[in-house]
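Sat 14:20. Reprocessing the chain from the morning session after the first attempt stalled halfway. Input below, unchanged.
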Amino acid sequence: MSTTRFAGKVVFVAGSTGMAASAARSLAAEGAVVAVSSRSEEHLRSLAASIAAGDGSVSWHVADLSDERAVDGSFRACVEQHGRIDALLHVAGISGRRYGDGLAHEASLDGWEVVMRTNATSAFLTTRAALRQMLTQEPDVTGQRGSILLMSSALARHPSAVHFATHAYAASKGAIESFTRAVAAAYAPHGIRVNAIAPSLVATPMSERAQNDPAIVAYLREKQPLAGGPIDADAITPIALHLLSADARMITGQVLSVDAGWSVSEPAPPRPRE
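Finished this time. Tokens:
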């Protein structure tokens, strides 16, 4: 695999931990200029330092990605500093349980709105900002202006009622999938590709509750047999980079499940008592 697929490309990464951080480091290692944005200055500084330590090119901007003015400001800063945006990777989001997400009859309206705003609205805002910039750019030698990759979840299509009953979260990820397909259809004639990845449970800061629950860990050993538990964040990165790169220039409007077998596996039922 080439290590210079992103040479001369500017990639905006929304998110600064977990899958976003892993991808940002790999993008920089493959020659990209990486512009990272999230609402945590601490995480941004740490990620930028790790990229710079590997001689990567990186800038960062603190922004609440669910806030319209903050997103537009972050993208404007990126273009002012780097001149263009060739790709967007949007990973930022929350699980929402602590905000009131849960079973539909128990969830609070505040929980629903926080999750939808943080997950779905933020994906819309960053996508809109990226599209506005990409449409001003001349196509490259392959006829393309840019690539956008959003993050869905296995829970959007393959729910787990016992362990992961966060219905606003599932709805927000389903919205992202529909948004991905609709936007891909509209902008393919302009040489802009839009895809999404739908991972199952990945070992990130957001999933710490699940990672520390023995019952869920046991469940994941069978539900995600290819991983034998949570998926390592670095295992998602090669798929993300492929979809963002020119290697995937014929792919748009797709939602790719990266779930270690989640969607085709079912934990064994408990044994009957003798």
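The radius of gyration is 19 Å.
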